Amino acid sequence: MSGTRDSLTRATWRNWAGNVAARPAREARxxxxxELAETxxxxxxxxLRVKTVGTGxxxxxxxxxxxxxxRPDLLTGIRRIDRRAMTxxxxxxxxxxxxxxxxAREGLSLTNMGDIMEQxxxxxxxTGTHGTGRDSASIAAQISELELVTAxxxxxxxxxxxxxxxxxAARIGLGALGVISAVTFAVEPLFLLxxxxxxxxxxxxxxxxxxxxxxxxxFEFYWFPHTGNCxxxxxxRSAGPANPPGRxxxxxxxxxxxxxxxxxxxxxxxxxxxxxxxxxxxSSRALSARTYTDIPHQVFTSPRRVRFLEMEYALxxxxxxxxxxxxxxxxxxxxxRVSFPVEVRTAPADDIPLSTASGRDxxxxxxxxxxxxxxRAYFTAAERxxxxxxxxxxWGKLHTRDAGYLAGVYPRxxxxxxxxxxxxxxxxxxxxxxxxxLGD
Length: 440
Hints:
This protein is an alpha+beta fold. The protein is 32% helix and 24% strand. It has 14 helices and 21 strands. It has helices at 33-46, 96-105, 121-126, 164-170, 202-207, 209-215, 247-271, 276-286, 296-300, 320-333, 376-387, 403-409, 413-423, 432-438, and strands at 6-8, 13-14, 21-22, 26-28, 50-52, 68-70, 78-82, 87-91, 108-109, 143-149, 155-159, 179-186, 188-189, 192-201, 218-223, 229-238, 290-294, 308-316, 342-347, 362-370, 392-393. The strands form 5 sheets. The chain has an 8-stranded antiparallel sheet, sandwiched between helices. A 5-stranded antiparallel sheet has the order 7-8-12-10-11. Helix 7 (247-271) runs antiparallel to helix 8 (276-286) and helix 10 (320-333) runs antiparallel to helix 11. The radius of gyration is 21 Å and the shape is globular. The two termini are 33 Å apart. 45% of the residues are buried.
């Protein structure tokens, strides 16, 4: 075997939700960029395709391969912090949790982030992971430079100045352009956020959505199907002082109610679907209003221990509330029993070709089903509504769209595929999912 810590395997890899499985020919665990480049060159010489897998938090088969599965768990840590440029360069396999903790120790932070921190840096940006924000966009929009191992084993550094066309595409590259080995993010001095969480009726939050969006830096809400109830969250910068949730009250809200009790409720609903509406009414009233102030990653992110399947679409922001009302009407008149809340977030337009917010202010509608519960009828009906509004599916979440549809909702789709044709003409980094969404 080579020095790249390759191991022959026919072990089955599964994603976090358990709905995707793959049996790679072998796994590789490179510990340096040189070893990663050697892994790519060797696989190409043997006619094996290459995919990198992070923590498996994608619900699609975007990382599945029958070739070489690259595990980046040895490519971790911060390479350098440039306080003059206010950037941090981090190895691609670093989990977001470790990055956020390390940045906070240095008095630094990302501007915005998603609602979980389990993913690797490369996995999060490659699938377009985002949080919610009026002015601040996805994790990928905060990138200032990328290091990429291409299909011929070269190590390419790209930025707005160097290989700008590759940089534009590779910030959300779906793993189709190469293997990311390092990412440089813009960062800022550590700041405080005040979170205000409170229940609100569906009618009120939909009627006041535009005002709530406009008045808050970060606004999101969850609607509980079979009820008229929502939970809202407003995050805004604060001069302090820090006032985090108390240890006991925080545990009750974030662990017992949001994870432990919610797990039990979903298990009951899966076993006896007729109980779901009553459970939804109880769940929607379980979380009380609270306000707290803390550093960003303690406010933006939450633990997610209840396993589920998810589909999410980005719509033009002005279309989101109409689509959500259609979704509610569909559920109300159907025999569906939906135990998971529907999540609504926003993002400003950005300039990344395959970003779900590319070129338009966007709102996201995400639907979920508890793991092991039949989801197809619900997701199909929801997808019909969301695609009618020009929705763009999240690259790492379940959907049925193909390249024909996606080329119609992404004005810069051809720009991305042209870069792919140049960097990976033989589809070393391809798989069945990429064939469907990007074409051949």
